[in-house]
Amino acid sequence: MDIVQILSNTAGSVLSPVTIGYALATIGLAMHFGYAGLLNMGIAGFMAIGAYGYAISILSFGFPWWGGVLVGMVGAVLFALVLGVPTLRLRGDYLAIVTIAAAEVLRLLFLTTAFEEYTGSADGLSGYHDSFRASNPLPDGRYGVGPFTYTEDQWWVRILGLAALALALLLVWALVRSPWGRVLKGIREDEDAVRALGKNVFAYKMQALVIGGVIAAMGGVVYALPASVNPGVYVTSLTFFVYTALLLGGAATVFGPVLGSVIFWVLQTLLGNLLPALVEIGVLPMSTSQSQTLRFILVGVALGLIVIFRPQGILGNKKELTFVK
Amino acid sequence: MEITPMIAGRARSAGQRFVVSLLAGLVAVLALLLGVGVGPAMAESTDPPSSEQPSEVGLDENPFRVSGNVKLNSEPLAGVHITVTGGGYTADVYTDAEGQWRVGVPEKETYTVILDEQTLPEGIAVIDEADETPNEKEAEIGPSGRVTMNFFIGRGERNTVSFFDQLVERLVNGLNFGLMLGLAAIGLSLVFGTTGISNFAHAEMVTFGAVAALFFVGFDIPIWAAIPLAIAASAAFGLTLDAGLWRPLRRRGVGVVQLMIVSIGLSLAVRYVFQFFIGGGTEQLPGNDSPTIQLFGAVQLSVIDLVSMGLSVLVIVAFSLWLLYTRMGKATRAISDNPSLAAASGIDVDGVVRVVWVVAAALAGLAGVLYAYYRPGIRWDMGAQILLLLFAAVTLGGLGTAFGALIGAIIVGVLTEVSSLWIPADLRFAAALVVLILILLLRPQGILGRRSRIG
Fold first, then answer.
1. Is residue A104 pLDDT above 80, yes or no?
2. SS3 helix, strand, coil % of chain A, rounded to 5?
3. SS3 B218
4. Looking at beta carbons, which residues of chain B come within 8 Å of A91?
5. Rg of chain B's alpha carbons, rounded to an integer?
6. Cis bond leading into B134, ω under 30°?
7. What is the pLDDT of residues B146-184, one digit of tens each?
8. In this predicted structure, what is the pLDDT of residue B52?
9. N or C: which end of chain A has fewer CB within 10 A?
């Protein structure tokens, strides 16, 4: 068992594009669920819009990479509007079922062979990196220390991902301490009271859905940036994993989503490396693939335990619970 | 070069096609003379294929790709001979077990895809009324560098099965699927009505039934005994969940949304526990290859399908009588209606809820076994695949009403089957989900629900 390699991989996951992508999606979900109280179960759909919007506009329409990012953002705005108009008046669990269904419809549309020419069907999309890599100002080579040594392209993905993450954090931080954010939190606590104060509850919820959706779509773009777009990623389990990360860190906090995502992926990477190693030296009586499945069993158990015993998350305040309904 | 006889075989607008073929031939000759790109690809294609019937040809050597599916009523057809020609390039390929084929092509242009009807099973032909030679199609490489060419295959001697026959067949299949969904949906709806939980783990209760049946069959127990045992195991599973998880949570006074997220966590955990034990593949129950019986018209059903439908109807009728006429059934409906009032009138809410969990789990277990035959096959995530259809059925019928869920399930089942007459088969679940969204737009309380439930 190579302890150094396992720890190095685990440390590397802190800066991986997957973690940054999850962090962005989780911040978007915090906007929906943590601050506005919207039980959006379609976060995988928003991420898929970002990833496919980016890849399709580059591959099929020859956009530059920043054009692809814009298409992903515009797509998320449209999806939020389409989703929000019929559903934002519905009660919590109804909203959950509709959003999860909408995300699944979206995934099936990306998966069907009818549009394979554009979406690549079950194969997904790849090979859209030229424009993005051409924009990289870093000279060729490998940089960094220890587990954080990457090539210039890998660094460019991480730099832009972290920049997007910082922007999203700044935006959410500024929004939730503004009067707008206070109204939003008011809606979460007592929708009727806010309505009685003369606020347009529907408009506030819609704005939160759009802003959070765009941030989540950015997460989808960062997730797809280094490698490929694979329709098997944007399943409902992705939504549940993002929820796990969110509730772990604290749903109604600014930095909780980032902390939750980092912990989620550090643990996933650690277990993903450690469990097979334990199987090899004969400590765990199972096969290697079973030990990989064990990770996901633990995610499910963890999600249940967090919700029951610490619903406010690591950084959250017990007084600011998000499960008021 | 196969281009010339193939083009000459076409009846209409032969002149126009001739010009195309002439141009294609010229391009080929030019390419050969210049020795660019096409040369090695041609050499590759004229070599005898490595395996006898390759389903993928020249993918590594060539940048662009033509691929497709050959399916008959969403069942893949294997070993069908496909020829792709164009620009002086020819490739022969055979469909694999999934009915799929892929060909790498060297140029970004239009290729002709020909399906050899001799290699189709007896009595089956490519169908396209708008085209005299439906087994030949033009495929133009799109901007993404790939193109899909699917053939619509139907039964019949080189002509279509009448639309009416297809519709009837889909209706019968849809009814079968709907009844099976109904078994699971009434349980989901009862649980929601009595406890307020949108139970995402209901999907895993469906899978549990199928996995339990597989487990018992593994001990050489015959299938007729394994199914009742699986249902009993499912009921015990429901009882365990209620006693070990849901009842303590009710005692704690955990909110509805929290319970829903707990059910999501449970769903993930149990689903991966299934994968832990049965792996990622598909397992079969015995008897899944039962003979088909010709019913009226073109409708064919397997013996298993008929047994499955009969069993579903029987169980649903028994369940309805239980819900309508027994003390326990009446108490269940009273709690669905108004839990506080029911408790105040002396009904043991906790006891009834426990019975509801057991009944819901047993029904879901039976649905799982039937679904394993309908799909066919048992997978660790088979329940999760129909979870949203179950929610669609329950919502369509009206959350919390058992008979509404049944009606909703039959509508969803028929809809998913019939819709594949018009839309691609891999989008048929999407149709049901779109209906779910539309229902919530137009009549959020569902067919049998009441306005007050939507809050």
1. yes
2. 75, 0, 25
3. coil
4. 454-455
5. 27
6. no
7. 777 777 665 544 445 677 888 888 898 899 999 999 999
8. 59
9. N
pLDDT category of residue B448 using cuts at 50, 70 and 90:
low
Q: At residue B382, what is the residue type?
A: M
pLDDT tops 50 at residue B248: yes
- Is there a contact between A296 and B270 if contact means CB atoms under 8 Å apart? no
Amino acid in the structure at residue B308: S
Contacts with A296 from chain B: Cβ below 8 Å: 268, 272, 275
Q: Predicted confidence band at B216 (pLDDT cuts at 50, 70, 90)?
A: very high
Please tell me the predicted confidence (pLDDT) of residue A97: 82
Secondary structure of B330-362 in HEC code, one letter for each residue = HHHHHHHHCHHHHHHCCCCHHHHHHHHHHHHHH
**How, if at all, do strands B146-148 and B64-72 pair?**
parallel
Each domain of chain A, given as residue ranges in start order, spans 17-234
Handedness of CA B46, B50, B52, B56 (dihedral sign): negative
- Helices and strands counted in chain B (H then E): 15, 13
Tokens 């906007």 belong to residue: A31
Complete domains list, chain B, with CATH: 3-155 (2.60.40.10), 164-454 (1.10.3470)
Per the prediction, chain A carries an average pLDDT of: 91
- pLDDT single digits (tens) A1-55: 688 989 998 998 999 999 999 999 999 999 999 999 898 999 999 999 999 999 9
Distance, in Å, from the CA atom of B77 to the CA atom of B125, rounded to the nearest integer, reads 12
Q: What is the pLDDT of residue A30?
A: 95
Predicted-complex ipTM score: 0.91
Q: Cα dist. A164→A23, A27, A234 in Å? A: 10, 11, 21
Token code pair at residue A324: 């008021």
A92 touches chain B (CB under 8 A): yes
Cβ pair A157, A225 in contact under 8 A: yes
CA dist., res. B202 & res. B186, Å (int): 11
* Structure tokens that stand for B279 in this block: 């792996």
Contacts of A48 (CB under 8 A, 6+ apart): A103, A106, A107, A110, A220, A231, A234
A94, A125, A321: best to mutate for the B interface, most B CBs within 10 A:
A94
Helices (H), B64-201: 163-195
Average pLDDT (B363-391) is 92
DSSP string, A24-92: HHHHHHIIIIIIS------HHHHHHHHHHHHHHHHHTT---HHHHHHHHHHHHHHHHHHHHHHHTTS-H
Please give the pLDDT value at position B227: 94
Sign of CA dihedral A61, A65, A70, A75: positive
By the 8 A CB rule, do A244 and A307 touch?
Answer: no
Phi-psi category of residue A282: left, alpha or beta, with phi > 0 → left and psi -120 to 50 → alpha: left
Determine whether the interchain pair A307/B262 forms a contact, defined as Cβ–Cβ distance below 8 Å: yes
Rounded average pLDDT over B242-271: 92
Do residue B142 and residue A125 have CB atoms under 8 angstroms apart? no
Contact B433 A101 (CB under 8 A): yes
- Per-residue pLDDT band at B297 (split at 50, 70, 90): low
Q: Is B223 exposed, middle or buried (0-12, 13-18, 19+ CB in 10 A)?
A: middle
Q: Nearest-CA residue of chain A relative to B438?
A: A86
Taking residues B265-270, report their average pLDDT: 96
Residue B303 or residue B139, greater confidence: B303
Residue type, B288: N
Confidence tier at B143 by pLDDT (50, 70, 90): low
Alpha-carbon distance of B411 to B415, in angstroms, equals 6
A169 touches chain B (CB under 8 A): no
Q: Could you tell me how many residues make up chain A?
A: 325
Distances in whole angstroms, Cα of residue A1 to Cα of each of A5, A269, A294: 9, 15, 19
Q: pLDDT at position B39, please?
A: 34
Confidence of residue B225 (pLDDT cuts 50, 70, 90): very high
pLDDT of residue A95: 82
Tokens of B16: 């126009």
3-class DSSP assignment, residue B15:
helix
